[in-house]
Amino acid sequence: MNRGAKAPRLITVNPTQTSFPWRALALLASWRFQKKPPVLSPPHNGAAATLPGIIGSSQAMQEVYRNTRQAASSRASVLLLGETGTGKELIAHALHKLGERRNRPFIRVNCGALSENLLESELFGHVRGSFTGAIDNRTGRFEAAHSGTIFLDEINSTTPLLQVKLLRVLQEREFERVGDTQTIRVDTRVVAASNRDLAEEAAEGKFREDLYYRLNVVPIWLPPLRQRREDIPALVTHFLNAYNEENDRYVVHIEPRAMEALQDYAWPGNVRELQNYIERAVVMALGDELTFELLPPVVRGESNAPRGAFRRMDFESLAVQLVEEGLSKADDAATDLHARIVDRVEREVISQVLGACDGVQIKAAQRLGINRNTLHKKIKDYGLDGGEGDSSSKAS
Question: Residue 369: inside a domain, yes or no?
Fold first, then answer.
């Protein structure tokens, strides 16, 4: 018996509590004879099995799992798209482990962490004397990943010159080390990831279109955490277990108010942000409960989300974020949601289009696809006319 261990109080399970599946967190055995903190059981909703090391059984994640399992057995390039912190590297590992290359190398390269010259040497290697500081031959990451998988994270940050060389590797499966003329052939599967919409980047000339199509053989989109809130209880349980073990703590209860706040927050940093906050709560907890007060002010709704929280990804995600933000600012009794959200968006659209058309209403109405009289009325309703004497909005 471990006499130095402090026996916890009994866990109270309220079967009528609907905000969080507390039964899943009930401890089924006494901690009296254990040296380690008890392991919490994640909520279970009967969904299909997840991928190894990945938490979440929501419908959105089930689609990710299906696509990942299907693509894993192929040789095709895979492009992982999603906001920062959504777990793209975990999916890249799963693609490797579930495929026939599982016993071969898995090499990760963060393309956004190095300058163009250093990244070229990192990817393709170099020979002695090829540039200042090249004191010896070096094997590149593509060569090191031969017969295995290379994961190119933040592929959108690569320069046009490097994109040309990446395209050649994808098409011809060959390259030369920096400063060398000998061609090296490799059999390396490429998995790339981007937190930007590469189709849009290619359309704007910021990313090579031909490279985009080579990478985008099998696209897998990872949903942000705000679009799979039902996975938050399982994620919280997982991180509590991990950081209890790591820090020798015993935080095994979750205050209902705290869980509600975690599920209501927009999570601009996604799972990585949630992980950080749970680790902080475990370290700072004075007792065995994760309380509302242990959460940062932004999660408790006491301060605004950090600047840049709403990241540009795609129009649909932006629309979802905008509506969620509008709804979060309204109370349950509000009956003006259309005016709060839709009317404000319409006003901004009209204002910006008018500005782009130098205030000419006929041209603005054509751009907006609405009748000129309708536009004139909306300009007055939204107070965009600036008064009778204002000439900022011209009829013709």
Answer: yes
Domain membership of residue 367 as a residue range: 330-381
- Taking the C-alpha atoms of residue 15 and residue 23, their distance in angstroms, rounded to an integer, is 7
Q: What is the pLDDT of residues 202-245, one digit of tens each?
A: 998 999 999 999 999 999 999 999 999 999 999 999 999 999 99
Residues 286 and 215 in one domain: no
Residues 258 and 306 both lie in one domain: yes
Q: Are 144 and 292 in the same domain?
A: no
Same domain for 242 and 210: no
170 belongs to a structural domain: yes
Residue 100 lies in a domain: yes
Q: Which has the closest alpha carbon to 353: 345, 364, 361, 343?
A: 364
Confidence (pTM): 0.67
Distance CA 82, CA 194 (A): 7
Among positive and negative, which fits the CA dihedral 18, 24, 30, 34?
A: negative
Q: Which residue has the tokens 């991990």?
A: 242
Q: Within this chain, do residues 68 and 18 fall inside the same structural domain, yes or no? A: no
Tell me, yes or no, whether 176 and 196 share the same domain: yes
> Tens of pLDDT along 158-202?
999 999 999 999 999 999 999 888 999 999 999 999 999 999 999
SS (HEC) of the chain:
CCCCCCCCCCCCCCCCCCCCCHHHHCCCCCCCCCCCCCCCCCCCCCCCCCCCCCCCCCHHHHHHHHHHHHHHCCCCCEEEECCCCCCHHHHHHHHHHHCCCCCCCEEEEECCCCCHHHHHHHHHEECCCCCCCCCCCEECHHHHCCCCEEEEECHHHCCHHHHHHHHHHHHHCEEECECCCCEEECCCEEEEEECCCHHHHHHCCCCCHHHHHHHCCEEEECCCHHHCHHHHHHHHHHHHHHHHHHHCCCCCEECHHHHHHHHHCCCCCHHHHHHHHHHHHHHHCCCCEECHHHCCHHHHCCCCCCCCCCCCCCHHHHHHHHHHHHHHCCCCCCCCHHHHHHHHHHHHHHHHHHHHCCCEHHHHHHHHCCCHHHHHHHHHHCCCCCCCCCCCCECC
Q: How many domains does the chain have?
A: 3
Q: Is residue 325 part of a domain?
A: no
Same domain, 180 and 69: yes
